[in-house]
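Below is how a single chain appears once it has passed through the pipeline. First comes the sequence as given, then the structure the pipeline wrote out for it. We keep one example in the README because the format questions we get most often are answered faster by looking than by reading.
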Amino acid sequence: MNINVKNIKQDFPALKTKINNLPLVYLDSAATTLKAKPVIDRLGEFYLLECANVHRGAHYLSDKATQQFEEARLKIKTFINAKSENEIIFTSGTTDSINLVAHSFCEKYLSPGDEIIITQMEHHSNIIPWQVAAQKSGASIKVIEVTESGELSLESYKKLLSSKTKLVAINYISNALGTVNPVKKIIDLAHEEGAKVLVDAAQAVSVLDIDVQKLDCDFLAFSGHKMFGPHGIGVLYGKEDLLNSMPPYKTGGSMISTVTLQNAEYLNSPQRFEAGTPHIAGAVGLAAAVDYINSIGINEIYEHEKSISDWVTNELKRINGLRVIGDNASKINIISFDIKGIHSGDLGHLLDQQGFAIRSGHHCCQPLMDRFSLAGTARVSVSIYNTKSDLENFMVAIEKCKELLL
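Resulting structure:
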């Protein structure tokens, strides 16, 4: 089934924006997706009619807010096929989710001499927390190499794995290259050595059908703002027994069973990791974003984004002097490229004047840029509201930029 992009575009009011009297073509969805009107409307409805704190009030509005908040948790559980709603923790986003694991899991399970494995293509938010955890624990970090085609070297990975490996942290889809990593294989190999695996699914959650039970990952993190939902809300999935064995990340109200002035006893997951007043509206808005994705169909979204991203990749490769970074068959919806003699920032500025919103720079992936001997790239990321026509116009704009800058 093909999705009706014309109708979908109507769901995103931001696309009515004009840049120099030209229509906005938004090609920066890897940074954040635009927000669908049903999500915006649901947020407004919550704040107008249902706003109260959760889990603690003895009145109608509090009961209503609590119901909506916990129904959002159940919706996320179903969306990623977790075993239990107790495995769904609301956070402020992917970065917060990863930091939670880096603090709580590593405090409990990491010792001097242990090893954490990451990859050369990780976002900084899936590098720095592990650096800090390693420094605190006396563990060390090992790195899976990236091939010239922008794929992970499984041979490199197999050589790194050992009984010393306690955690493997990988992205599902590279935010800089669009490479879809073989996470199931990576997870299975890690488990053979007794290691746990965290999957950064920030780029995958809006385009891939994620089943955490089939993947058998130990942790999975993602953000609402990259799946047409609100900013400031995210999810950490973790296996329930593992979560309950970990100390809390933050402390305060709502995460305790009893408190004295000398001691406290903590609740189990998810409350153990949700201290204080949560982003209630964010969770409700995230549930609306899940409904929106489901109304279109995740497989239909994948096919659409794969089709147009493959098309624009092939067209870009025809341009003299242009190099697609990480050119491989598994890529989806993100294309990074470099044009010899043109700074990516200059290119982004000229494209913006023509109505095209792209990203330029290192994309919070400086080690990956170092791998390809680049300071940065121009990055195009497509979504459900982009059409082949948008990308055809983008190709014309690229040629205009080349004429002006070379």
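DSSP finds 14 helices and 17 strands in the chain.

See the next section for the split statistics.
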